[in-house]
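Glutamine synthetase III (Flammeovirga yaeyamensis), 716 aa
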Amino acid sequence: MTNLRFNALETASARTAKEVEAPSNKISDYFGEDCFGLTQMKAALAPAIYKKVESAVKYGTKIDEATADAVASAVMTWAVSKGVTHHTHWFQPLTGSSAEKHDSFFDYTKGIETFKGSTLTQQEPDASSFPNGGIRATNQARGYTGWDPSSPIFITNKTLCIPTIFVSYTGDTLDYKTPLLKAQEAINKATIDVCNYFEEGVTSISASLGCEQEYFLVDKAFYAARPDLYIAGRTLFGAKPPHGQQLDDHYFGSIAPRVAAFMKDFELQCHKLGIPVTTRHNEVAPGQFEAAPLYEEINTAVDHNLLMMDVMEQVASEHNLAVLLHEKPFANLNGSGKHNNWSLITNKGRNLFQPEGSLYFLTFLVNTIKAVHVYGDLMRASIASAGNDHRLGANEAPPAIMSVFLGSTLTNFLNEVSESGKLVYAEGGDEYIELGVEKIPGLKLDNTDRNRTSPFAFTGNKFEFRAVGSTQNTATPMTVLNLIVAEQLTQFKASVDAAIAGGKDKEAAIREILVQYIKESEAIRFEGDGYSQEWVDEAESRGLSNVKDTPRALDFFISAEAKEIFAKHNVFTEREIEARHDVWSEIYSTKIDIESKAMEEIVLNKVIPASASYVSKLADSATKLSALGLDASAITTTLKEVTGFMAQAKEGVAAMVTERDRVLEIEDTNAQAVEFCDSIKHKYFDTIREAVDRLELFVDDAEWPLPKYSEMLFLK
């Protein structure tokens, strides 16, 4: 195994950047050429057929059989012209990644390619073989995928992919997309009702989303030489390198040629798929990068982010690189998030979070703050995962405490409202930073600063949910966010209507209720350093939850309050959310179980043998020095330290295995997840890692079997 590491070093050092040529110098010439959305349908379908599809996308009307047949024929003709031979329903089961089963267009009985509308709109995968939380038994296998016309059809790997929902035979949701679509309907209705207080003609709203995707890149040879990376997605061991991110010299630095070639290729494939990736840069940690798209309608944005992660992995492999999407692939370095930039846009083009001196803007701002105050625990649950537990609160990412950052201007205003009980707001003129350098124009000052320590920050004209993990399907946090804001707006409208019915003027009623909300939600607003211990202490005094581990955070999903709001807006039935609680608890246990077994294998098969070989050499050297009458104390001291760390690692693994066998016998899934968290992860992982990381520093470099941080992070 020692040779594997040095072979990886030799291979990685010899790599050069792959040449990447775009079809044109103008992205507009090929953007969307591999997707078939409304724009492509308008060109390919008869006007009457297109209007029916457009109505289905915009207003949720049903697509009839004739329309489905026409779309199927057009999309097959387009796909076959591009060399496509198979089609699949592309869906998002509770595994956390996408799923697909490919079928050929070719009809062997007729000898021609064919694609019916019935096949476009519905297929039948096995519903019992995917995680379902007990909703479907093995002998109850039937499930359905159904075409989602609001998300563009696309081609990847010469296969036509049709975005779909996934439900059981009994109609229970088994995917991430269906609840999101239901939450979209809820916020659409609730927002329209409130908008009508202020203007006429608002008939629909679009929840808008832009996902900033952080990731690490390592050479594929290093990845293959690290079992923890390809088994668990993160390094379970690894001594801190002398040079990490201390100098801040990687952030926004020049992009290495191999990485730049990967980025160019990755963006090229995304653009063909209609994914509007616009930003690339080095992130804070060495080896860490970010890609960000423009904002899209939330359902399409979620699909595109999931597809983007698939494309990223495929393209990286072609460049002899491996993408690490885990939230914390390297200890003592910044982890990776997926910052979700969210806003609400009316059909008249108004961004409801665009700051202005109006009651309209303040109504949606204050109600969103109030929603987070009331349902912050649900937001915490929506970002819970084994990977994100390593990142949250690790002095680089928002803590597990949910809070809202608004910036000094809005915060001062809301504080004044709380003190005075009066809501009067007038927007001032633009402010500028004057630099005193004539060549440089004054820089326009935003109405808020940026707070990267806040999990939910107002960033000018949108909210940024920064606590979402890099591996996550963003559908769940966005489902929860849309849902809680929808519920809060519903409560707001009921209160305003009641006040109006009681004789109050409409504007006076709105102002009075907003003042009440501002006072009630004051505890959730925080402007300071979310990384600090002072905030942890203060948050506790404010009554805010600080649940750091996933198994306990998941319990927020099955609280009476959560079940009520899920059922009220038809997002989850009680049966469905309890099933998901079961699935997510089991996924957590499985991931910790896998990590513990990978630890066991690496320690016993690699670390101990390499350390023993080094000990043998040390002992031989000590014996020879003593025989010559020379001082061997330095070597014998090292021997004691190395054998001590070997014993710590070996004994830790043995105890962990015994405890793991006990935990695996626990039948209740959530109880088992809690035990995996407390009795395996917290009790043994750090102790074993400490010993192995110390051995890495002691053992002869020629003996050490695992590629080191300094090699993986800096050799590109």
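The first strand starts at residue 35 and ends at 36. Residues 574-627 form the longest helix (54 residues). ok done for today
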